[in-house]
Amino acid sequence: MSDLRELYQQVIIEHSRNPRNFKELEGASHSAEGYNPLCGDQITVYVVLEGERVKDIAFKGSGCAISKASASLMTTVVKGKTRAEAEEAFDRFRAMVTSSREAEIDEEALGKLAVLSGVREFPVRVKCATLAWHTLHAALEGKGEPVSTE
Ligand code: ZN
Fold it and tell me: pTM of whole model > 0.90?
């Protein structure tokens, strides 16, 4: 377990230092801003939606390693998925980071999002980890107002 945990930690650090899809997306059909005042994380999520499918997704922003790594992982997971599949991934992710530390992690269902399972041991970091997802949700809903985790 400690080996796995170390591996997860390395993936998080790697994604935070070298985030994927970290750019403003030209021609985005949907976008939203999110803010986590508890930590100071700020993010803008851009989506190109083609029909029901997320054809492209990117983000920009500043924040802690967890918020950045989570946003980076999210973009890699959501790209190519339908809007409904993206929402399902959000539900699974949220359930994971808010579960008790004894609860089983369904690594098969969560895929690479499982690397953030350690967040559940640090409730104050849960908002860092879910900020990108809340912001994606708002972008897909087409709400113009910035998201705050408060
Ligand atoms: Zn944070």
Answer: yes
The tokens of 116 are what? Answer: 């953030």
Q: Ligand 1 center to residue 146 CA distance, Å?
A: 17
Q: How confident is the model at residue 3 (pLDDT cuts 50, 70, 90)?
A: confident
132 CA from centroid of ligand 1 (Å):
11
Name the architecture of domain 3-142.
Answer: Alpha-Beta Complex (3.90)
127 alpha carbon – ligand 1 mean position (Å) = 7
Identify the residue whose tokens are 């399972």: 117
- Starting at the edge strand found earlier in the chain, the sheet holding 53-62 runs 53-62, 41-50, 30-36, 147-148
- Ligand 1 centroid to residue 52 C-alpha, Å: 30
Q: In the chain, where are the structural domains located?
A: 3-142
Paired with 56 in beta bridges are 48
Cα of 51 from ligand 1 centre, angstroms = 33
